[in-house]
Each structure stands twice: as structure tokens, then as C-alpha cells.
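>> Question from a student workshop board

For tomorrow's exercise we were told to take the sequence and the ligand below, predict the bound structure, and bring the output to class. My setup keeps failing. Could a helper post the expected result so I can at least see what it should look like? The ligand is zinc ion.
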Amino acid sequence: MHPSTRRARVLLSIAIGCAGAPRQAPPPVAAPTPAPAAALRPPEPREAPPLLRLPREVHPVRYTLSIRIVPTEERFSGTADIEVELDAPRSVLWLHGRGLHVTSARVDAASAAYEQVNAEGLARLALDRPVGPGKATVHLAWDREFDPQIVGLYVATEAGERYAYTQFEAADARRAFPGFDEPEFKTPFDVTFTVPSGEVAVANTMPVEEQPAGAGLKRVRFATTRPLPTYLLLWAVGPFDVVSPPPLPPNQVRSRPLQVRGIAPKGRGGELDFALKTGADLLVRLERYFGTEFPFEKLDHLAAPDYTYGAMENAGAILYREDILLFAPGVSAEQTRKSIASVMAHEMAHQWFGDLVTLRWWTDAWLNESFATWMGNRTVEEWNPAYGAWTSFLDGVDYAMGKDALASARAVRQPLDDIKNVWNQFDSITYQKGGGVLGMFERFLGPERFREGIRGYLRAHAYGGGDTDDLLDALSNASGREVKAAFHTFLDQAGVPLVGARVSCSGDRPRLLLRQERYLPLGSSADRRQLWHIPVCARYSTAGVEKETCTLLEDAQGVLPLDACPDWILPNADASGYYRWSLPPRDLRKLTGAAYRSLDARERISVAANVRAAMHSGVLGFADGMAAIAPLAADPDPQVATVPIAILTAAREDLVPDATRARVEQVGRQLYGPVARRLGWTPRRAEAIPVRAFRARVLWFLAFTAGDPAVLSEAARRGRAYAGFEDGRFHPRAVDPGLAAIALGAAVHQGGAKEFDALLARLPEERDVAVRRRILAALAATQDPALRERALALPLDSRLRKNERIEVLFAVAAHFPSREAAWTALKHEFDQLVPQVPESHAQEVIALAGEFCDRAHLGDAEAFLADRAPRMPGGRRQLAETLEKVRLCIAYRDAQGASAGQFFARASAPARR
Ligand SMILES: [Zn+2]
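>> Workshop helper replied:
Here is what the output should look like for this input. Compare the format with yours to find the bug.
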């Protein structure tokens, strides 16, 4: 799955239109279905319900499902014949079903009473006589409303047409059909749909039979699937455009042609071109890496207009949020190509990691998500290095280190206490930390041996299940090096290591002296004394010759021998290690000084990240740290040159008193004004995507954070021309699509009710997700208090799609002067809003409280959320993280505020410039 989990980035992606992972979905209701006739109850005593997982003693071996899906209706219905294997005679079977209206139930010849016993969808089948041991068949019939939370089986509307889709991960197949909804149970599925005869039906396999079913309906039977867990099924029905290019020809690892199709809402098939071409290139690279063919019969890529996540790796039928699959030249931002490629590679990597070999339980979610994150970025980097995918990946790993530094951080493999908290597993710790740890060990073991380990794991568990130790054993076997213990130190404990490095050139051999402890920011309550087995690789230069040397640091202290006394040393070569590092000031200055040009872009970013971490831990004063980082704004690499923006933004908002804020803005304009003038508003032909993304970031920063009047007014001028306020139509040529959100935002920011109303009026008829997000981000930019109130009422507005409701709140809060109003609005709307967004994402609204950095808001947030958060899935963890973030921010400001004030007072003094 490609969810979101990174609030800060979502904000930016809304504002700038670079696609991050999306989010948003509805909440569940699931009132238990009333139990049927008491007469069917078995004799007492009743068996106690299983607490977390279903008992293994009864397991499914095959499903035959028949489902009526007519998207224009309010409800769907179905029948299931589930073959099961029982270990002993049983009169109670446990399974799942959530909000299903079950109309008949029996097991072989035994009558059964079906009852949903808790809100998460545990269900009991009570038989009138025991069945088993051995095989039996569970027969069930049910109906249900299409899910209002856009999970399970739901309907999305675009341009007046209704489409049905499914989203089953992690535990939502039970909202569509009764079954054994846990990943360990992999079985073949035979599926038949009854659908409108003029519409297209899509599932994990191709149709094998189609017959009229009367009354404008047809019955479509699909080929039997490979063994799949319930969470990887996909069903979709609607008046789709289906684009079927010639099948991918056989290659070294695949002897058959492979049909890959693109499926979009009606009229939008032409926007699948880029995805289909790109997806084909990436897929062949994945097959080559894994050394095995694509594991399923065919592959469809489907675009959904209203969707909870970024994308979902259903076996052979991947579902994407529309704006990360469709690309419309002249309308979509060029940066979208990067997100399309990255997300496609991620989801296709899952076809092996997750679909071919499936985790046995959600504690191992990292086996899916860390791998897909690492592999997806690796594949895009190899395919087109100009996209900067690997640098973006490392940037994400750095973000995860920030989360991992919290005392409340969770381990990658955190045991799951309650299925409703399964969403906690899908966060930056699983995706980016896990991905970063894999990258570190790949480099340590060597890419070929690492790949052999992966291949061995996939071969051994193909079409079955695997767990962490299966994988680590395979990696150890293939590499001839025991890595299990080392991996577990990163997977089973929270926290990011800090490797302190110091060169010693005395004695007969030069050495790098290493020590480790847990990295902790100022104000942290966690314990530093913690150990990992860390693959440490250092790059250094002696007499102009560059070298690299590695060790596995297992104890609190260690030694890395060097060939000669180095001119400079970088304690994390290629920025590939999952750890923070520190050097004595003299050695650090070499890296930001004379050695700077010897470092590659990732290493320069890593140096800046570690300087920033040292500022946050109090080792380095803000003024010294910022003096080292500010010059990066002029770095020739756009991804490096972006780094100071976040630090300036945080300083302006959290660190300095009101009176100094203008000076921070002035420094921002001094650093980035020349950059903006150099880049201009019009991208060059064939300009690299990181440059485009940088331009968008710089212009947004100058317009809305640093208050550059020239940038703001040019943006507004272009925004007015783009919006076409005079003729009521967008004029795409007025501004590059990658800058359209900034331009529109500036037009609203500088304008009044006329501009606001005109854009809001476009929302109901605008079908393109990317354009809708632009409009919403623009409305969020208003500075007029009355209009701001209207923008903040949008989360409850019926013109918004379900996946837009939370985003708009955060888009308002992204504008510093509106932050307070956004928080007030959230408190006001909270109890109404939460039931209208997807259950899995509802807790993300809590993160809005984390935008503040003062004790008054901390107290306010604690008081308001103390009772509400624990009632939301994943809410308790989100609240702990959010409150800790605010506490740490306060500690940082208390410690570094004065130093920051001095820096900005000096830096912005006219005499210096
Ligand atoms: Zn994923």
C-alpha cells in the first residue's frame, strides 16, 4: 500500500502539487447484525471469542463468491461457499463480517446462526449440530450498503458516473464479504459478478465467461486466482475506459507474453499513456532483479477518483488514486511523472513482496512496506536517475529518523495489540525507517549477495507465507554472514543510533574511534543507553585519494582502522546508514568547508541533516549550525539547495519572537530571491524534475513564508490569468502546471470574495483530482478572516470528496497566520468531521495540534484530545507523538531561541550584505 503518514509532506504536496501519498477515508459504523433466531443457538457454555486472531484450527481452503455489484444501486449482495478444513467436530466457527446483513447461513447440512460480535467485525457462526473433522463448506448469503467510508466495497462518482471499487487492506474485506480476513489464510478464489451489461468488471484475473443475466445485467465469471489472502482481492465495476496495449513480450525470466492494461474513468483513457509506458519499463526491471516472472496472470492499473490511499497492490490489479496514475499533458504538473513512477514501482514490487510471498501477520508489515519502499525507489533510480528518486528516498529516511527520535516512537516490528490499531503499522517507521535499514544492509552485504538472499526467500515461500526470520535466514545464507541479530536490533527496538566518530592519528596506526548511544533531542525523556549492531561505513581522503572502510559496530565503543591519517572523513559513506553521526567541530568544519565539493549530493544533504540534528540535541548552537547550512541555498544540486527552507520556516514559526520574524523572512529572501530570479517562472524544455520541484518549493516559500512582494504579485498575476476570472475557464498556458497551485493561491491570497467564490464555484464540476487539489489549496491561502472561516468550513461541505476533507484543514494550517484559526475550526468540527473521514485516517487530524510550539496550545490539545484520541483507531499513539512533538519544540525554543535571534539579527543586518 502507498498511504500517507507524513503530514508535513502532504501539506507541501497539496500546496505544490507534487504527489505524496494521499490519505483520507471514512469511518465505520458496523452495528452488529442482530442475531437470528435464538432457537438456532447451540447449547451453553458458549465458546469465548478469540481476542486478536482467529483460531488456526479452522481454516479456509477455497472461496466461491458470487456478488451483485450495480454501482447505481445503494446496496450490493452476495453468496459465498467457503470450503474449510476443521481439526475436530465443532459447533462454533469464528470468522469475519462487518456490517453485513446476513440472510442465510449454514455449514454443510447444519443450520447456522450468524452474529457479528464486535465493532471490528469478528463474527460467530453457531451451528445446530457439530461439523467436522475434515472438510466442510460454509454457505452464506448477505447484502450491505456500499461502504460510506470508501473502504471495503464502495462507490466513487466522477462526472456524474458511478464506479464501484474495493479497498481491503488491512482488515476491510470483511466489510464486503464474510470470510477469514487475515493474511495467513491464502486460498484460491472463484469469483462471479452480476453487473450492468454495458459496464466493465475487473478482478484479480481475467473473465472466462460472460452471460446475460436479464434486466440489463450480465454475469461475468473470472478465472480461479492463485492462492491469495483476502486483503489482496480487487473488484471494480463501472463504465471504464480500458486501454490494452500489446502484451509485454517474453524475456529472460518470463516465457509467456504478459497483458498489462490501464483502466480509467470514462473519457480519461488517453491519460494512461505515461503510466503504461513507464510501468512496462519498471516491471521488466523488477522481473530481472527478482529473477522470476511477474507472479500473476495479468496486470491491470486502475485509477479511482475518490480513494483513501495512494495506491494498493492487489494481486494483478493495482488501484491508484487518480492523480498518481493519470497524466494529462498541459494540465498535470511534470513532477507528477516522478510520483507516478515511484508509486507504480512500489506497488509492482509488492506483487512479489506481499502478494507472491505474504506476511503471516501484521506485526511483519515491514516485510511488505519497507521492501516496496526500498525496492520501488531503487528501481526508479536505476531506470531514470534524473528523477532524483534515491535522494528523495533518503530524505524520507531522514524524516523517519526524526520520528524515531521521539521517546514515544514505536519499533518497526511492534506487536499489534488490537486489530483496530493496525493502522499504526503503516507509518514512516515501517516505510522509511524499514526501507533505510534495508538499504544499509544491502550496501553492507553487497548488492549481489543481498539480491541472492531475496531471491532465495521468494523461491522458498512462493504463493505462501513468510516472516521476518525466514527472510533474515535467507539473507544470512546467501551472504555467508549472520545478519539476523544485527537486523533485529533495528527492527525490534525503537530509536535512531548516534555514532560519535573521532579520528586518532597518534600511535602506530591511524584509527577512527567510534561510540554509540541513542540519539535524543533536547527535552527528551528517553534513555540514551541503547545498543545496535550498526554497519558503519566511513569515506575519507588521504593525500587526495578517497577510500571507504566499514565495520559492524556491536558494542558501545569500537575502532575502524584507517590506512593513513585522513584529510577529512565522513562517518556515513553515501548517506546509506540508518544512524545519526557526530564529529568534533574541527572535522565537521572540513566537511562543510574544503571537503564539501568532494561529497556527492546525498552526502551533502546528510551533513546538513546531522548538523540540524546536532542543533536539536543542543550539541551545536543554532547560530553555528545555521551558518553552516545557509550557504546550501546556493548549491548547484536542487535537492541540496532545498535544505535550508525547512529550517528557516521552522525558525520563523517556532523559534523566534514575533519581533524577529521579519528578520527571518528577510534572510529567506536574501538566500532564495536570487535563486528565484535565476530559475524564473518558465521551466526550460526537458528540465529535470528535481529542478522543477525546487522552483515550486522556492516560489511557495518566497510567496507565503518569506513574504517576497515581487514573487507574490507575479504569482497572483499569473494565478488570475490561469483562473480566467473574466470568462470562467482555466487558461493552462498562463502558468506552468507545476506552479499553478502557487499562482492560484496567490490570486486568492491577494484577492477577495470575488476570486474565492469563483474558484469555489468550479469545484462541483471539476473532475480532475489534481485540479481539485489546486483549487482547495488556493482557497486555503486566503488571508481574509471571513473567507478563511468559509475555507475552514469546507471539511464538512458536501462538495468535497471524502478524501479531501482532512487535507483542506491542513492546507489552511500550512499558512502560518491561519494556523490558530485552523485549530479552532478543528475543535469545533471534530465530532462531526471524524465520522465523515475514513477510519484509518481519522486519527491524522490529531497531528494538527503538533503544529504548535507553546505551553498554552499543549495544554489545550491535551485537554481537548485526552478523551477523543483513544477512541479513534490508532489515536492513542498519534496523540502521544503529537504532544511529544510540541514538548520537544518548546524545549528546543527555550534552548536555542536566543541563539537564533542573534543569528537572524546579524545575518539580516544591511552591513553584512
Ligand atoms: Zn506499499
